[in-house]
């Protein structure tokens, strides 16, 4: 008997302002629709995750694909990872600037390459050799992000930003935004997959890579444990290899709900980090937690759909 498919997605965890909630909800609803349609037609969890993440990359409201935060020098530079829990195949790209949908480039790495990870120009060349059209970086930039960068850099000059990155940026919601997108899915064949895609943090130094595309940090999937995607302040998440930490708790017997909360508690207790996490196991059990003021998420199962922008 086929499994009941499940799709759980997030669209970032941060102090999202009230006027951005509706647009996030609309983006989440569309990604759930597109991703779940894949699962309903019997496609793999990898297909569903790719489709859901690509839909959010295409939506300018999120910090992924077009509409991403800008680097210090005003460019879009993106990272993404896709992982198949059935066979542990994974594909990652980082610091790509000329790819409209980094998650689709990650899919090509997963599918077509014996390697797991490509960065920068090498990643773009690989994608192009696989038939992907390269675009100009300006096609990924939206006016809202030019303004956000200018505001941030003005605040930096005035000394109003913690440039040591020793803590979460500032309490100011426009500065502390984390709009990375991610998805985890269970398909009718009983396999799970995970994907995460991001433009990274606001005004990042070019070449900086966060947790999102690093295997075991912002994303991981293994049928024997769980599928996970994270968002938030990347450096502490990387130091704790938090995605793998969370799925290992599930393998050791914790319910995804407990493991998700434990991971966020650990992130804060150990390094004062802030973020959000989604988790899903092969039994279709889900977990979601965040310690940021808000997190955008959506869940679709045969019984129906739930979504929202939750507060803590
Ligand atoms: N985790 C991402 C990074 O540090 C940012 C985010 O989740 O929005 O690059």
Features of the shown structure:
12 strands, Glutamine Phosphoribosylpyrophosphate, subunit 1, domain 1, eight-stranded mixed sheet, single chain, globular, 8 helices, binds aspartic acid, alpha+beta, 312 residues, four-stranded antiparallel sheet
Number of folding domains? 1
CATH class term:
Alpha Beta
Number of helices: 8
Shape: globular
Average pLDDT reading: 93
Query: Going by CATH, what is the homologous superfamily?
Result: (Glycosyl)asparaginase
CATH topology title: Glutamine Phosphoribosylpyrophosphate, subunit 1, domain 1
Biggest β-sheet: strands ordered side by side in the sheet: 4-3-2-6-5-1-11-12
DSSP strand count: 12
What is the succession of H and E elements? EHHEEHEHHEEEEHHHEEEE
Helix content: 25-40%
| Ligand roster | aspartic acid
What profile does the largest beta sheet have? 8 strands, mixed
Rg computed from alpha carbons, rounded to a whole number of angstroms? 18 Å
CATH hierarchy: architecture: 4-Layer Sandwich
Query: Class by helix and strand content?
Result: alpha+beta
Spatial separation of the terminal alpha carbons: 39 Å
Q: Strand share of the residues?
A: 15-25%
């Amino acid at each position: 008997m086929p499994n009941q498919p499940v799709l759980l997605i997030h669209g970032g965890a941060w102090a999202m302002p009230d006027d951005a909630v509706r647009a996030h909800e609309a983006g989440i609803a569309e990604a759930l629709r597109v991703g779940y349609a894949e699962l309903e037609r019997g496609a793999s969890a990898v297909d569903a995750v790719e489709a859901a993440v690509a839909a959010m990359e295409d939506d300018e409201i999120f910090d992924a694909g077009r509409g991403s935060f800008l680097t210090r020098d005003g460019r879009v530079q993106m990272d993404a990872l896709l992982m198949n829990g059935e066979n542990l195949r994974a594909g990652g790209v980082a610091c790509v600037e000329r790819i409209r949908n980094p998650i689709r480039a990650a899919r090509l790495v997963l599918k077509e390459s014996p390697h797991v990870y490509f960065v920068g120009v090498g990643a773009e060349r690989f994608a192009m050799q696989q038939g992907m059209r390269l675009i100009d970086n300006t096609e990924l930039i939206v006016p809202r992000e030019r303004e956000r960068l200018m505001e941030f850099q003005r605040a930096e000059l005035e000394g109003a930003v913690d440039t040591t990155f020793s803590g979460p940026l500032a309490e100011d919601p426009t500065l502390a935004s984390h709009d990375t997108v991610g998805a985890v899915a269970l398909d009718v064949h009983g396999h799970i997959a995970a994907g995460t895609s991001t433009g990274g943090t606001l005004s990042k130094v070019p070449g900086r890579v966060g947790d999102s595309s690093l295997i075991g940090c912002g994303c991981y999937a293994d049928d024997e444990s769980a599928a996970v995607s994270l968002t938030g302040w990347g450096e502490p998440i990387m130091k704790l290899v938090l995605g793998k930490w969370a799925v290992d708790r599930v393998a050791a017997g914790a319910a995804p709900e407990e493991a998700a909360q434990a991971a966020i508690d650990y992130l804060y207790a150990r390094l004062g980090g802030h973020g959000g996490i989604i988790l899903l196991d092969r039994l279709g059990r889900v977990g979601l937690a965040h310690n940021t003021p808000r997190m955008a998420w959506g869940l679709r199962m045969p019984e129906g759909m739930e979504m929202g922008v939750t507060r803590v």
